[in-house]
Design brief:
about 350 residues, alpha/beta, about 15% strand, Rossmann fold, disordered C terminus, single chain, 11 strands
Length: about 350
């Protein structure tokens, strides 16, 4: 399996890999991914190994001076892959770099997407090209189409039920965090306002997250914990500082699967179109996802878990503009809309069927 990045995209490939494990229980399944997303694949029973693509290869590729070292390191990595004598590669990433790994792996059967559904000439590296049905698909469904094509099965709407797993040590760590910061009130609401520094256009305003959190505390008497990832602490602090009610900042960063354990204990998660939103969804926690310019169908949360997508219909969304002066898609989303969506999930709990947009 090849899906190199990012955390959310790797997580959304889990159902596709779980399906293959179910159909081929004796297969040796390895997953090639990058260092940071590899944390999401810890503690899994459906994988035999995780092969980490060296981050130094990407770093050296940024400068011509680093290219000779990059080539040497890439060839060393490929020799490691070829030594395993894989029979099949499934390329869920669909880019040039994943195609190169697929082609040079030495596997005689290489599955990927057709030219129309891949980029950067990826289609030339694979000899089994998967057609996708017409219309938009979520990333989860798209990955499942590739797995079913490899298995020779007809496509259908069934989505395997698979969740992130945490270790005993991570569960004890979350126990310590809860004892340190939680009052024990219910509902327990997690707000994750940040996005990576590369994707500020996916970020709803921190002050609006704060207002939505205030509304929920007043309506429910619950408590709010604000979490953050690398380089997101300042955004999280802005939410806590802007709240009229009492919100609590998460005291420390966790591993991906440790964060999953924390999210699993919440009654509802509120965040944007980010990796942590998918972490929460694949932890079984009901999710309120605030969407602006990104495609809400392609990036929907895990349909097995209850969720609501909050958005405003605009003529220009979805789009890929990293900088926009007319961000109506976000400014027209109100704290009341987000709080109302969270209340729907809190009223229904985890027993509700998934799905739905606001």
């Amino acid at each position: 399996m090849v899906r190199l990045s990012a955390i959310g995209d790797v997580i959304r490939t889990l159902p596709a890999v779980s399906l293959i494990r179910e159909r081929l229980p004796n297969a040796h399944i390895a997953w090639v991914t990058e260092e940071i997303p590899a944390g999401a694949l810890a503690h899994r029973d459906d994988l035999d190994e995780v092969i980490v693509f060296p981050s130094t290869i990407k770093k050296k590729a940024r400068s011509p001076l680093g290219w000779p070292g990059m080539v040497r390191e890439f060839l060393s990595f490929i020799r490691e892959i070829r030594a395993r004598r894989f029979d099949v590669v499934l390329d869920y990433h669909g880019l040039f770099k994943s195609g190169i790994i697929s082609y040079f792996s030495g596997a005689p059967e290489r599955y990927g997407y057709t030219k129309h559904f891949s980029r950067e000439l990826n289609h030339i590296f694979n000899n089994n090209k998967t057609p996708l049905p017409a219309g938009k698909l979520s990333r989860i469904r798209r990955n499942l189409v590739l797995s079913r094509f490899f298995l020779g099965e007809a496509d259908d709407d069934t989505i395997p039920r698979v969740y992130l797993k945490s270790s005993d040590e991570e569960r004890r760590e979350v126990d310590r965090i809860e004892a340190e910061v939680r009052s024990g009130r219910r509902p327990f609401i997690i707000v994750h306002p940040g996005t990576s520094p590369r994707t500020p256009y996916k970020r709803w305003q921190p002050e609006r997250f704060a207002q939505a959190a205030d509304i929920l505390i007043r309506r429910t008497g619950g408590e709010v914990l604000v979490t953050y990832g690398p380089d997101e602490e300042e955004t999280a602090r802005r939410v806590v500082d802007a709240m009229d009610e009492t919100g609590v900042l998460s005291p420390r960063l966790l591993t991906v699967t440790g964060l999953s354990e924390l999210f699993r204990r919440a009654d509802v998660f509120i965040g944007g179109d980010t990796g942590p939103m998918h972490v929460a969804s694949f932890s079984g926690t009901p999710v309120v996802a605030v969407f602006g310019p990104t495609d809400r169908m392609e990036n929907e949360p895990y349909p097995v878990t209850p969720y609501r997508i909050v958005y405003r219909e605009t003529d220009c969304a979805p789009c890929r503009k990293r900088y926009c002066t007319d961000d109506f898609c976000f400014t027209d989303v109100t704290p009341e809309m987000v709080a109302d969506a969270a209340m729907e999930l809190l009223d229904g709990g985890r027993a509700n069927a998934a799905g739905g947009g606001s």
